[in-house]
Amino acid sequence: MKHLDTGGSKEKAQRNPGSFRDPSGYIFENENQIFRAVSNLGFVNYKYVKDSGFLDAAIAKNWVVGCKEVEQSLPDVAAELVLEHPRLPFISYPYEWSFEALKSAAIFHLDVQLMALGYNVAVSDATAYNVQFLGTNPIFIDVLSFKEYKEGEFWVAHRQFCEQFLNPLLMGSEFGIAHNSIYRGNLEGVSTSDVDKLLPRWRKFTSWGLFTHVYLQAKFQSGAGEKHKNSANSKKQRRLSKNAFTEMLTQLRNWISRLEVKNTSKTVWADYANDHSYADEETIAKSKFVAEFSSKVAPKILWDLGCNTGDFTRVAQEGGDCIGIGFDFDQNSLDEGFQRSRKEKTNFLPLFLDAANPSPSQGWNHRERLSFKDRANADAVLALAFEHHLAIGKNIPLPDVVDWICSLAPTGVIEFVPKSDPMIERMLLLREDVFHEYNEEQFEISLRKNAKIVKSIQVSATGRKLYWYEKM
């Protein structure tokens, strides 16, 4: 057993503000390391799951985050056992995932449950926040969510799975509505009763999945269902054999795997990589600049703002060990980028971001789910063909846009797009040009207030320029 060495530091262990709901244990940090304190209650389940062989097998498969038992001597940590986990490169939330990412996480969660049942182990909850991504590979991060499976027990987390995985997916597959804003407004997901109200009555009876997991669940959760909740035979009616449970999970998995976004049509940005507004020579010039920047800076974590499908992140990753986290607002681009990254097995995760309204700190005490800014951990940032969407598209003052981008990483590449560019001309076609201070001079003044300009080049005949900055 490894000893948790405090190195003589008097710094107290910092408890993760989002880790408080589980009586089995909690996460804390010390000396930039991640630990989990396991309570007496959690230790019983942990020992059973460990002895079953499931935990080691799932960790070896990279399905569950690694953990090792350590001795600890911190006076402010009371626990039966302390586990150390590797620090993940970035923590994302389901309201930042694209449809394809959420679908991948849902299928993965069911796969974890099916694997666990083979070891006589059950998953005690179904919160989507227990799934994270390494690239596009999902990984389960809560080792205390596993417990001994008891024959006949009902899937008590079914409702949570539906609200946090299935129902948000149905918003996309049934109605063509992205789940992100709804999910962010209700951190527990999308209620089954809401989906049931939105579905036409005939539709509920044309799909086994909708009938079973939406219609019947909504009926059970309603007053009609509550009448029978405390009946003498309620527990007997809710017993579920392991074979029946396995079949239920398998059918649910197969159904989710076939879900697709309804009425998906080509957007302005979805095919941007293949049908963009500038010449191939410009793309080549940008790629060379990004490649030079990346080879000199060698970032371990790179953020790509306005990533589209991740082309320039891939350029930056060539020849280096770089984790790419992309951000974009276009759902089709995100889904295409996710599928492409998964197919090519690149270390790139595209996430949803409305940069004019980024994820805030929210949940209990405004700290349960940290804001986009509070999670900023990039070594470098790319912001190509991005700033004008905020400055022109959202009326955010150019200096504020530059300040915000520079605050996210110590170095990066920002592209300035002048008004003479066809893209901005189209943006101003039906609106008054009130952006009198939007120009290259003002951009450079704003950038120099934040950092030194290492290098800049013009990459288009219309005046687009790339700026390599480095904060002093």
The total of helices stands at 18
Please give the radius of gyration in angstroms: 25 Å
Distance between the termini: 43 Å
CATH superfamily of the largest domain: Vaccinia Virus protein VP39
Number of strands: 17
Q: What is the fold named in CATH at topology level of the largest domain? A: Rossmann fold
If strands are numbered along the chain, what order do they take across the biggest sheet? 13-12-11-14-15-17-16
What is the class of the largest domain in the CATH system? Alpha Beta
Low-confidence stretches: 6-10
- Helix content bin: 25-40%
Q: Structural class given helices, strands, pairing?
A: alpha/beta
Overall 3D shape: globular
> Largest sheet, described in full?
7 strands, mixed
By CATH, the architecture of the largest domain is named 3-Layer(aba) Sandwich
Overall mean pLDDT score? 91
Q: Strand content of the residues, in percent?
A: 15-25%
Number of domains: 3
